[in-house]
Amino acid sequence: MLNPIVGEIFCIDKPLEMTSFSAVKQIRGRFRKHLSRKNIHVGHAGTLDPLATGVLIVCTGRLTKRIEELQAGVKEYIAWIRLGETTPSYDMETEVDATYPWQHITREQVERVLQEQFTGAIEQVPPAFSACKVDGKPAYKLARKGKDVEIRPKTLVIDEIEVLECGLPAEPTLKVRVVCSKGTYIRALARDIGEALHSGAHLYGLRRTRVGDIRVENCENLHALLDRLDAEQYVSADEAEAQLLEAERQANRARAAAQKAARHKTKKT
Q1: Any idea which residues carry the catalytic annotation?
Q2: Per residue in 77-120, pLDDT tens?
């Protein structure tokens, strides 16, 4: 039986063009419907852009306390990059705003640049079209109003980066696998790779294939999960609250016993 109030963790393969918030909202809606209760905590570990697909971890109830731990896991992405063109958002959310020569770029040059400039600890300026806060406001809200956005660079770690496919010299396209730390913007990485190659670049596809030990091949299709949530049986809200209360009582007893033992040990010494 599902117990979303005490806590569940779902690993989904987020569909294209859906926001992470929308996925969470749909799952929360199923719980509200089946438990006839509005205040059910549901959150996700690590936002995925609407134009990205792949691993999205959704936690409910008390297990939302694990979100920070889960999103801190190393992440793996497959990125499709187009050279010679830039967009304000560094992906296909916005139109191409400039074009650059790319015919001088070779696969050997790409691989050398990735290993020499984009492996290990690097500095990265997050995209203006991102949730990074600027003066207390998400940067993307300012960027979409046409305002200048200044974001400070952040240090992150690229553990692995490799070219899986290269369209050069016929086509200015790359397919790259990236293993990186929390906080890495692959859109910004594409921008920086383009600049390092004396050209421009933007993402035209992105898939998160791993978060920590959770791989995309082991994730559920969101629509299949929603159907399963409709078919499952649930622990009632009253029973779930009773379980939480009992767990708190046991934790309090254990804490009290530990404190008593510590005091007894102190007296002996």
Answers
A1: 49
A2: 999 999 999 999 999 999 999 999 999 999 999 999 999 999 99
CATH 3.40.50.620 fits 75-211, yes or no: no
Residues of the chain with CATH 3.30.2350.10: 75-211
CATH 3.40.50 fits 9-71+216-241, yes or no: no
Q: How far apart are alpha carbons 172 and 96 in whole angstroms?
A: 15
**pTM, whole model, 2 decimals?**
0.88
Beta strands in the chain (DSSP E): 9-14, 42-45, 52-60, 75-83, 85-86, 98-99, 120-124, 133-134, 137-138, 154-166, 173-180, 201-211, 214-215, 220-221
The Cα 162–Cα 77 span in angstroms is 11
pLDDT digits (tens, 9 = 90+) for 15-40: 999 999 999 999 999 999 999 888 89
